[in-house]
Amino acid sequence: MANRAKPDVVVRACGDYGEKNAVSALEAVLEPLGGLDWVEKGMRIAVKANLVGPFRPESAAVTHPSLLAALARLLTGRGALVTVGDSPGGIYGRVYLDRVYNAAGMRAVEAAGGRLNYDFGVGEADFAGAAVLKSFAYTRWLDEADAIINFCKLKAHGMMGMSAAVKNLYGTIPGTFKVEYHYKYSNHRDFADMLVDLNEYFKPRLSLADAVVAMEGNGPTAGVPRFMGALLASESPYKLDLACAGLMGLGRDSVPYLKAAYERGLIPADRSGLLIDGDYEAFIAKDFKNVAVRRELTFFLGGGFGALFSKAADRALRPSPRLEDGACAGCGVCSGLCPAKAIRISAGKARIDRKACIRCFCCQEFCPKGAMKVHRPAVARLISRL
Ligand code: SF4
Ligand code: SF4
Predict the structure, then answer these.
(1) CATH architecture of 9-283
(2) Which of 367, 373, 374, 375 should be mutated for ligand 1, with most atoms under 8 A from CB?
């Protein structure tokens, strides 16, 4: 390490989630960053996984348990006390979290010497340096940690275009508060700034991305698993995500929170400005199916000319939630969690009040049937190919 510059991002192959492979791939991806030498005996480490709901590992919706178990094994081997947790949307309590832990295979973490989080307390933070998130509620288990490791899953995402390390920290907002925050930061740019604020507040010591099997299509919960065979690591969640975006064929401006991070000087203009250790190009999935978010007219037409366009024209290009024909079971999950109260169930089917909808895509994220899709107007689809 002495003569080598520390890379911004490391990428290594991880061909499957087998126990031995997971440990060796983790060791390999961490080595150029100095390994886990910073971990001291007795250190309390919180591993913020992506446990978006009671999804099985094969769904590719959650960070894979074998990678989390491998990390727990490496950390406890150094004498650290490891807790793995997350706060999915919904009630932040033992009954629901046990469902999530069991479905996502998280008992493997306990078998590896780690703990699962059962502290469901809520803290209140003031953050004077925030762009938008000046005060907020957060999951208090993180207070116990000497260091946070952010272990995300790489997924397409309806609202932000992608979900990786930066978006993963939205799980620091307690589940029951998420609806309120979606409503408060309903503008995609505000939501992006809020995510960057969260990452600046919690400052994870290390960020890891499970891109062994990512999720493409109707992500972050109802998409399709996509083998990519990669594990990534960085000391910066923003740089990690800029690299991850490139693997999915996305650029900085296609991901609102990367744009926000760039404007705050947290990432270079594009991934060519990153020092990436590993055969990055080999992992790029050129045909990755994304849920592209709205690209502003001004982005294509230039600030001055674009600004002349009315908000109505810009609105016409926005993606919106749409029901897939015949797929809705009328269960009411979406209407119960919609922050804008824009959904009602009528004749056994969800109906969306388009005027009230704030396009947070919570309905798409949490529909248990995968019935809610991100619909992009034809003009927007055409423009995004330009
Ligand atoms: S769209 Fe999904 S969550 Fe909403 S009622 Fe239909 S099946 Fe349930
Ligand atoms: S209808 Fe869906 S996208 Fe619109 S505000 Fe409600 S949950 Fe969000």
Answers:
(1) 3-Layer(aba) Sandwich (3.40)
(2) 367
